[in-house]
Fold these 4 entries.
Entry 1:
Amino acid sequence: FGVDRVVAMAAGHFAASAGVLLGAVALTGAAPLLALARMLTAAVTTPRPAPALAFMEGPPGSTVRVCVLLLGVLELVCLYQLDRFRAVGLLFAPMLARCAMVVIAVGSRAARLDDRRLKFAPDLTFNGFALASTLTFAVVFLATEFLGLLLVLAAASLTIALRILFHRWLGGINHAALNATCEVTQWLLLGALAGL
């Protein structure tokens, strides 16, 4: 949010949007973007679970790199279009996206090539999930009221749908699924706020 304000004053709206995107990429090492690119490429090229998991855990090829570039451009468009609810989107979309990671991880099975049924995050308990969710929802509700409720419902619905999808497709979740959930949730919220 701070980057957006400073860059917008100095260089305008487009530069501010690019600055926000570059800042997010720098802070995360592009892990969410890369994970979503891997998931999408795997879904198209190797939809069966075992090859898809092997593909997601291997080095990114040229197709994945091109997909990352395209996803980055689409995210930049979302950020640029974000106007009326810009502060809400920049502050709360990343927060809810990270909360979605906790929600999808708690109690999920690990997607494994050896088909062993193990928990993805055995140390993550319901208490951790409850604490992360309660704090996030409280901050969002207090700051945005009804709009916050809509954002939380949208994020929760998407997270549940992705959890079901990953368990049916891959037999559980892995780090790529976790990071892809973060990126997709953030996209959904930014896109929805940009359209309001």
Note: The two ends are 19 Å apart (CA to CA).
Entry 2:
Amino acid sequence: MKWLKIHTLFASDAMMLAILVWLCTLPLVGLIILPTFGANIALAAAGVIFVLVLLICWGICGWEGLRK
């Protein structure tokens, strides 16, 4: 049962979905932030969005894993 909780915490399907969501936001970052603020800020924004998406994913997966 403990393995099931650990596996659910790092579920690959949810992680792949989170990475796909991040990849879909990259064109928006490139179209909106890059021309306005420059490449350094656009790279920083892409990194921040990546971390936020992963934290949200881990939070949802962790919560679901603890409820089971």
Note: The mean pLDDT is 82.
Entry 3:
Amino acid sequence: MWKKFFDGIIADRVIILESDEDGDNFYDDGNSCAVRVETRPWVDHRHDSEVVAGKAGPRESDCETVKFEAGTAEDLERVLIEQAGFTLSAAKEIARIAGLTDEDTFAGEPAYLSSRLVPGVHVASFDADLVRGLRLNTVDKWLEYPRMQIAIRNETGDAYRTIGADSMGEWINTIQWFLAQGYTDELGPDGGTWKGCDAVFSRKA
């Protein structure tokens, strides 16, 4: 039985990963299909189904949905690069998430953080850069309520996205990333909370 364990955005494309929970899926040659992959363009359905990946317009390969099964990191990386247009580093990171390799492609960077979009609120024009920079996994709902949350405001001042952090390392890395990118820390060094969020960031247009 296939079971989904990752549904997020990597390199401006949706990635869905499913594992062979029962170990009963095999290729014709008898080798195990360890992971099933689906990748498609990242589409914001709330805004006229416009593809938001890449300001100059998506590549031809970004306009296709690709589905396949893989048993090794090499198989997965090859298909992602040849059929879906991923870079080698992004393909290796997906293979690591899929559990096919232990290679730490992004050593020193924050791990994938869970994040939610606020329903009915306009997504900021800089959101794609934020998702890519922090490598956010956008979820419909929290599987477990995060220990700390960070709110992000759009250009009109509305909080449109929240990011969860469960460890002090994730928290510090994320806060430092926002400050390095020139975001305004609205709560400042004295801390405090706003509507359940432990930090609030905004950015001038």
Note: Residues 25-31, 45-62, 104-110 have pLDDT under 50 and may be disordered.
Entry 4:
Amino acid sequence: MKKILILLFVIIYAAASFAANLADKKAELSRVKKYIRSLDAKIVAARSARKINKLAELKDLKRRQLERAKLIRKDIAELETGEKKPEVKKEAKPQPKPDEGKRGRQFEVGYGGGTLLLGSAYSFPFRNLNLQAKAGYGIGNGYSILDAGIRALFAVRGNKVGVELGMANYSETVADILGVAGNIDKGTKLGFGVFLVRPVFKYTGRIGYNTALGLTASLLYKF
């Protein structure tokens, strides 16, 4: 008989504690809702008075109270059903990487063949390569260059590098091209090049060497 009375007392105590806890949670949720309504009124007043700093502070307070209310509702649901709801974690969306896996045209401005080179290229992604067809025009001191060719960009140990093959047509015989020994005769010259690609702010920087143009460098902007 004594054991039954003790068990009965434990059951009654547990039931009373459960009811009190549930009532406390519901009362807390009511207070939070009331506080959020008061914040809404203050936000309207701050917006009307154009108090920017105060408005930002009130919005931050409301955001925190909404999060608090969400947690209290979760506790109430668990107390009422007796089941603990698992937390659902949102998976972070992968951030797109520039110039990766997309076709597109890009504008280039840089140096090559001793001239200011202006040009454009079009990307044709293929598996792990980024193939590009390019064309450009260079303006030098008393001469000009027509440049055209193809490139292939790929990753090597976390770095993006590339190779290119093309033709450069010089309007005149030129000398003292940075990276080229001797003169470059007038006419078309076949060129092979290698280069390294690096991000430069919102642009893409490229620096390398081409047998027809010497040392090359450029900034690229993709449309």
Note: The beta strands are 104-112, 115-126, 129-139, 144-156, 159-170, 187-200, 203-210, 214-222.
